[in-house]
Design brief:
Strand 13 and strand 14 form a beta hairpin. Strands 3-2-1-6-5-4 form a six-stranded antiparallel sheet. A five-stranded antiparallel sheet has the order 8-7-11-10-9. A five-stranded mixed sheet has the order 13-14-12-17-18, sandwiched between helices. It is flat. It folds into three domains: 153 residues, Beta-Lactamase (2-Layer Sandwich), CATH 3.30.450; 109 residues, PAS domain (Beta-Lactamase, 2-Layer Sandwich); 167 residues, Reverse transcriptase/Diguanylate cyclase domain (Alpha-Beta Plaits, 2-Layer Sandwich), CATH 3.30.70. The protein has 474 residues and is α+β, with helices and mostly antiparallel strands. Helix content is 42%, strand content 26%. Helix 2 packs antiparallel against helix 5, helix 12 runs antiparallel to helix 13 and helix 13 runs antiparallel to helix 14.
Length: 474
């Protein structure tokens, strides 16, 4: 079978390979999106697809057993050649796909919609797609929701592109600086004028110091970075201007992350390389300083997105997996109680079926806000998955824990008004107490709370059940 080729195919593949995403493990940032696509559109198959030269590869998928397929059978091969969403309502009636083995196979594909995933330069690297084994027509609301989710995936791709660019710039700067160091060691006296020209043109700040840390040279980049004009900086101790706590230790091989001070009083995160030199028996030090503000912001943004639930803005399961062992360690030190509340909404599926997934999402956001307002500021709540939440209570007595759990049941039962309709759900809660002397793991503690939650459901829902102790459970 044949497939169309994008006019910018070569440039598209260059960007795709620079991202280094092909053949990498699954990641929560993408898996959350494919789960939401399958849930919001009620389709059995969804994926985040990257289209390689001769294959389509799934960074994340639901409903596909394989991680890749040949490009000549890929619906997404068409998506990377178009500017708008690519939609096939009935593949068996479409001459481009009627003989496709993915269509002719028993239970084969009938419906497909793909949203192009573009790079920072606008090159289409792949698609966010939804597929069904039945013909269907996608509504404008469904298409808008899919485009919103594609925008989340695109933001993640753009973040990684920026990190690639930063890495390339850092490597290029490092290579240039290493060459400069060798030149200074071998020819510093003979090539002083040439060196000064390079320093004045450098992107990084360059500062030269004597043995008493007094500034001998201060390039244009240093003026821009720290705010002091060159004339004002010369002959001043560097500790008086940008490093009030003292210079970082000299290290000829590695850059040192440090905090500098600007003229306006603001702190600036920097990466510093310190090189010691001896010229005519006099010690000199050269500082090459790189502003790492943007790099740190990108790293913080990526860490935040990896630990935050997209829908409710609560901590996600990954964040909880990090927080729970820390809470257990604090309990062992303080000998204060720790309780895990595992919460699962009752009747949430009926809300989605009757009012649509958008209203269901609105309800989850409202419930999340109510739960946050009900617990203490020192307590911790995370969205576990779907309509499940987990609360960690540290330093609460058992009687207070059960009272709070019952209060949460009542809070969730309060109806949410959506137009003329009142959306009503309840919640079943399982509570597991962690004993400081126990050898129980975090997963075992969560499991006990989960089992107790199902006991609450079997007992009639909208109830609280306290889990058996570790000894009794075993």
């Amino acid at each position: 079978m044949s497939y169309p080729i994008a006019p910018d195919e070569d440039a598209r593949l260059v960007v795709l390979y620079e991202l280094e995403l092909l053949d990498t493990p699954e990641e929560p940032a993408f898996d959350r999106v494919t789960r939401l696509v399958a849930k919001l559109l009620s389709v059995p198959i969804s994926s985040v697809t990257l289209v390689d030269a001769e294959r389509q590869w799934f960074k994340s998928s639901i409903g596909f057993e394989s991680r890749e397929t040949p490009r000549d059978v890929a619906f997404c091969a068409y998506t990377v050649t178009v500017a708008e969403p690519f939609i096939v309502e009935d593949a068996s009636q479409d001459p481009r796909f009627a003989q496709n083995p993915l269509v002719t196979a028993p239970g084969g594909i009938r419906f497909y919609v793909g949203i192009p995933l573009r790079s920072l330069q606008g090159l289409v690297l792949g698609s966010l797609c939804a597929l069904d084994t039945k013909p269907r027509v996608i509504s404008s609301d469904e298409l808008a929701a899919l485009q919103d989710l594609a925008a989340i995936v695109t933001d993640e791709l753009h973040l990684r592109e920026r990190l690639v660019v930063e890495k390339k710039n850092t490597q290029a700067s490092q290579q240039a600086l290493d060459e400069l160091y060798r030149s200074m060691e071998c020819q510093i006296e003979r090539r002083t004028n040439e060196l000064n020209l390079v320093i004045e043109s450098a992107y990084d700040a360059y500062i030269s110091l004597d043995a008493q840390d007094v500034i001998l040279d201060w390039n244009r980049a240093a003026e821009m970075m720290f705010g002091w004009p060159r004339k004002a900086a010369l002959a001043k101790p560097i500790t008086q201007l940008i490093f009030p706590t003292g210079l970082p230790a000299a290290n000829d091989r590695a850059a040192i992350e440090f905090t500098a001070h600007r003229y306006d009083g603001n702190e600036l995160p920097v990466e510093v390389r310190v090189k010691k030199l001896v010229i005519e028996g006099r010690e000199r030090r050269s500082l090459f300083i790189h502003d790492i503000t943007e790099r740190q912001q990108l790293e913080r943004l990526r860490n935040q997105q990896a630990r935050e639930d997209v829908l409710t803005k609560l901590p996600n399961r990954r964040a909880l997996d990090e927080r729970l062992p820390e809470a257990m360690a604090r309990t062992r030190r303080s000998q204060q109680p720790l309780a895990v509340l595992f919460m699962d909404l009752d009747g949430f599926k009926a809300i989605n079926d009757a009012h649509g997934h958008a209203k269901g999402d609105d309800l989850l956001r409202v419930i999340a806000k109510k739960l946050v307002k009900t617990i203490r500021e020192t307590d911790y709540i995370a969205r576990w998955a779907g309509d499940e939440f987990v609360v960690l209570l540290e330093g609460s007595e058992p009687t207070a824990i059960e009272q709070l759990a019952n209060k949460l049941v009542k809070v969730v039962e309060e109806p949410m008004i959506a137009g003329d309709a009142a959306l009503n759900v309840s919640v079943s809660i399982g509570v597991a107490l962690y004993l400081p002397a126990s050898a129980e793991t975090a997963n075992e503690l969560l499991k006990r709370a989960d089992v107790a939650m199902y006991e609450a459901k079997r007992s009639g829902k909208a109830q609280v059940r306290i889990a058996l102790s570790v000894d009794n459970a075993s």
